[in-house]
Design goal:
304 residues, alpha+beta, 2,3-Dihydroxybiphenyl 1,2-Dioxygenase, domain 1, eight-stranded mixed beta sheet, 34% strand
Length: 304
């Protein structure tokens, strides 16, 4: 992936929000409402290393729902203070709201993804031993399974989940689905070692990229994510995961982003994937990527 974006560090606000999101405001939630299973196909296997869910922490969930509903066609269901977003009836992410702290003006809304793992407790032990931090303790949820939230040694936030129903199968994402995720790192090779230990990835060099230290994380024969090393002359860019949604037309998408009150942080550029990629921020400030898929966007590499 050939783009750059600016993200704030996780901070106390995100940590508290993760903890609150895991609790899902149980007292306020209707007692019969539960998180949907990650998969509804009986007998589906787990796919360790695959990103299977995402959450948005924001201080204005209503504005986020309005924006993503119009931009991607997502629909929503509230579970207490947690909102489940779906694309064509497929649940794919959650949104939960926390006030933005007055004493931390740099704190802002953020998306983060969840990696499928075979054992959450084992993942927790591996992450802590490798220098990561626990943000939300492992929690079991009816229908969903077990999940937890962490920060890696550089502060990039991610979750892990062991689905009780197996993982969603691998298929080419439709418009409105998550299609890719990329890690911005100070040392992508070192980060690759960390995530190899956590998720069992094969870490391969991206030999089609002009950037040095550019890697693809592979599991079960699929490219699950990528990582690249941030430029040394950009110290304000903080390590973070950036999620991408597939869109039908990148030009129409970025035009609509601004009409809906969002911002285009990285406009389509013919030097980057033939102008089929952009980075945007929603009206609350949360950043994510959008991509018009062409079939030649992502390629693996050779063993480093």
């Amino acid at each position: 992936m050939k783009h750059r974006t600016f993200c704030a560090g996780p901070g106390r606000w995100l940590l508290a929000a993760c903890l609150a999101g895991m609790a899902l405001n149980a007292q306020a939630a209707p007692p019969k409402l539960e998180l949907p299973p990650l998969n509804t196909v009986s007998g589906s296997p787990r796919l360790p290393g695959k990103f299977v869910w995402a959450d948005l922490v924001t201080d204005d969930a209503a504005a986020a729902r309005k924006f993503y509903g119009r931009l991607f066609g997502w629909t929503f269901q509230d579970v207490g203070n947690y909102t489940i977003a779906a694309n064509e009836d497929r649940p794919l992410c959650g949104i939960f709201q926390r006030p933005r702290p007055a004493d931390r003006p740099e704190a802002k809304p953020r998306w983060f993804g969840y990696i499928s793992v075979p054992n959450v407790a084992r993942a927790k032990s591996t992450i802590i031993k490798a220098g990561g931090r626990l943000l939300a303790a492992p929690k079991k949820m009816p229908q969903r399974g077990e999940q937890a939230v962490f920060a890696d040694p550089e502060g990039a936030v991610f979750g892990v989940v062991k689905s009780s129903s197996g993982d969603p199968p691998d298929f080419l994402a439709d418009p409105g689905d998550w299609i890719w995720i990329e890690l911005l790192s100070r040392d992508a090779a070192k980060a690759g070692g960390f995530y190899h230990a956590v998720a069992g990835y094969d870490v391969v060099t991206n030999d089609v990229s002009p950037r040095p230290d550019d890697y693809v994380f592979v599991s079960k024969g699929y490219a699950r994510a990528a990582a690249f090393t941030l430029p040394a002359d950009k110290p304000k860019i903080q390590p973070a995961w950036l999620l991408f949604v597939r869109v039908k037309n990148i030009s129409d998408c970025v035009t609509q982003v601004e009409q809906l009150g969002g911002k285009v942080l990285l406009a389509p550029d013919t030097r980057l994937f033939n102008g089929k990629l952009a980075v945007i921020a929603d009206p609350t400030g949360a950043e994510l990527g959008v991509m018009e898929w062409t079939g030649e966007m992502l390629k693996g590499g050779q063993e480093p």
